[in-house]
Amino acid sequence: MDEKKLIDGADYITLEDAKRLKLPYFEQVAAGFPSPAADYQHESLDMNEKFVHHPEASYFVRVKGESMTGLGILDGDICLADRQEEIADGNIVVAFVNGGLTVKTLDTSTKEQGFLRLLPANPAYKPIIIDASDQFILQGKVTSVHRDTRKY
C-alpha cells in the first residue's frame, strides 16, 4: 500500500509516520476519590507497543458521524484497525461498502438467509444490509479507540 494513499476518501496515518514516544505511565488511578499518583507510577508506556500488535497491517481511521455513540465511539475519534486480527460476529469493524468506509458492528447471524448486517450503536441509525449485490470488503477489526479530550 502506498504510504500516503487515501483509503476510499478517508485519511489515514501509517504507523511509520506516527512517532514512537514513551511517556510516564500510572496504573490504577482512581476515577473517584484521589490517591497519591506516585504510588502507581510505572516506568513508561509506549502506545505502539501497547496497542499495535501487527504494525504492517494496522492503520488509523477518523470517525465521522454519530452512529456508534452507544459503544462510546464518537464523532472525531480515531480508531486503530488491524487487518490481521481475526474478525468474528459481534466485532467492531472497518468495512468498505459500495464506495465508502464505515465503522460498525458485524452481525453474521443472518448469513444463512443470504445477507450480513453492519449494526450501528445508535437507535437513530438503521443497520446496513449487505447482500451479494453489494461491493463489500472487511478492511479490519477495530482494536482500540482514541479521543482527544482537549475539545471538551
Question: What does this protein look like?
Answer:
The chain is mainly beta and 152 residues long. 3% of the residues lie in helices and 35% in strands. It has one helix and nine strands, in the order ββαβββββββ. The strands form two sheets. Strands 3-4-9-5-6-7-8 form a seven-stranded antiparallel sheet, with no helix packed on it. Strands 1-2 form a two-stranded antiparallel sheet. A hairpin with an 8-residue loop joins strand 7 (116-119) and strand 8 (128-130). The chain is globular.
Low-pLDDT stretches: 1-11
Report the major sheet: 7 strands, antiparallel
Instruction: Give the terminus-to-terminus CA distance.
Output: 35 Å
Structural class: mainly beta
The average pLDDT score comes to: 80
* Helix amount: under 10%
Strand elements, count: 9
Over the alpha carbons, how many angstroms does the gyration radius reach? Answer: 18 Å
Order of secondary-structure elements: EEHEEEEEEE
The portion of residues forming beta strands comes to: 25-35%
- General form: globular
User: How many alpha or pi helices?
Assistant: 1
